[in-house]
Model the fold of this input.
Amino acid sequence: MSNFATNSLGVIQPQTLHFNEPLTLASGKTIDEYDIVYETYGSLNAKGDNAVLVCHALSADHHAAGYHSESDSKPGWWDLCIGPGKAIDTNRFFVVSPGNLGQCGGSTGPMSINPKTGKAYGPDFPVVTVSDWVNYQERLADSLGIAQWAAVAGGSLGGMQAMQWSIQFPTRIRHAIIIASAPKLSAQNIAFNAVARQAIMSDPAFHEGRYYDHKVVPASGLKIARMLGHITYLSDDAMGDKFGRDVKNEQLNYNYGVEFQVESYLHYQGESFAARFDANTYLLMTKALDYFDPAEKEGGDLAAVFSKTDSQFFLASFTTDWRFSPQRSREIVRALTDSKRDVSYLEFESNHGHDAFLVDNAEYIAAFSAYMNNIEISE
Amino acid sequence: MSNFATNSLGVIQPQTLHFNEPLTLASGKTIDEYDIVYETYGSLNAKGDNAVLVCHALSADHHAAGYHSESDSKPGWWDLCIGPGKAIDTNRFFVVSPGNLGQCGGSTGPMSINPKTGKAYGPDFPVVTVSDWVNYQERLADSLGIAQWAAVAGGSLGGMQAMQWSIQFPTRIRHAIIIASAPKLSAQNIAFNAVARQAIMSDPAFHEGRYYDHKVVPASGLKIARMLGHITYLSDDAMGDKFGRDVKNEQLNYNYGVEFQVESYLHYQGESFAARFDANTYLLMTKALDYFDPAEKEGGDLAAVFSKTDSQFFLASFTTDWRFSPQRSREIVRALTDSKRDVSYLEFESNHGHDAFLVDNAEYIAAFSAYMNNIEISE
Done:
């Protein structure tokens, strides 16, 4: 007897595919061979037209839904939206969730052994872009016999991958689901990433990225990076509602230790993240964000880029998201309407800032579910 | 012949007063003796009713206006607003600008010699609050023979001091000028400070604040703190207008070095700040911000606190300031009107974020000047 909810996928086993065909990256560098670790939920139908690709954001991985064991207390990162009867309904769809190249959850990344040296790649792992990930995910689609995705879906950096799929392989995607995302980073977005990278790279334990060889990790720098990131994921209001100016102890200490609950929370979040995540991967993910700018090749004209797409688009944003605000989604929507694409866009009231795409919200879930349920698939 | 503009104060000589009377702080600790370094501009009139106290913010000091030498290229931090014919018109007012206790510009602070040990205070320097600074500034007023300030003025943390003066010494201040400030920090404000402190305190060169003894400075941590602070001083729009996604070199490098102009700018700002500012002072200043909460003693009722004040109030905020947004100033204004105080409040259109209080803006300067010119003083 399972302890999981009736609409849970239960225990999920990750799978691995090894690729020997070299992948040439935007940087001009090549990665000769690599593993893609991925999970699937639901079943591919006979015509193979019900596959949905789920793309993860900065700090997530292939584990998007279900649990890894009966005793697992925490499900995958988008379990809220993936499962039987959920927005991405696994009774209808065959969902594929890969860990991206450069990630630290199993797919080949900086922690993996470089076959040329027999040691971890570390800083020799090439910088990858959203466009590179789409090429990498296309290889996975080929291997799984998926000629065309019913939908490619993701939030934040994951939404950028869905957008890039519509641009890069217009005939292989029917619907792009782009949630809490942006057409490119703003100068302020890049600036926050620059501070995070500076914190990691100036940690003496970083050793220019070769910390694996020294058997240490730049936990201190990664903690700072995550504390900062966390502030940008939450809204000012949500932080205020959750913590206000509540103090940690009964009275003020007037020292440089932690005085307020919000500090205590951030320290905890930073430390637990630093204990589980790889610093080189964090750097790589922030760079993938920085470089994303699909309109650049058309001189900044995003509508011109979208005019070559064939898919339909669903976009959603959240009122208190200040990392990728509704305004940023509206820029995408405007370019899509200018290029006469078929686009649905909804802005949801939420107090949860950028994290809202991961948080239960009846209107968001209802709209997302309705859109997905209207996607036509064969029986 | 001077190279300075006709409305410049020219070369200014800082002055120092030594105080031997112990000052008891909010923390319960005492500082036995201390220097106040300050500058004055203009002359005190016969009745002594034309004195204006200028209070500085986080990273500034006593040098508010004029130059320190004929060859000095940069004037004091509020030279825009202090001088003959300027908003705080030195033809009318006698302006006093002290460096606060705990500062690193000359007034006694963590870098000063602790007379008890013969070594720099470092982390033994007590945490100080805005209320402590007001007591400290009152000592200076007494020494200079100023029974009542015509006005106390400041922006950001300086505005908090002006507010605190109106509360703490209601009969010694006629006008409180509170610009781009807040009634207390939000959880998000505290969170940013916590990240900055973490960056400094986890720098191995910090040595628990005793870095002077090791003849090093935690420049790396202080650089990160300042890079982060700088993002919060600028608006997203201003950063976008100034840098956009302009790249530093002609083409992308696809590595972990600096790629975009905004990164280059932040690195430069962080490094130049780390070369001039003391890390222990930075910690102390962020703590003074965190602790500021004048309504706390009345259970959060700011109007109740203001009901005991006697001064008039001038408040100003700037549309794109997201560190202390117009909403935060309106909270103060609401409490002042609820307590039936005399308050003028203006919100100015500006693209300069929190820094706007230091930036030329015709409407802001005109309104500030008009208010100051209406302050009655004897001939």
In short: The mean pLDDT of chain A is 96.
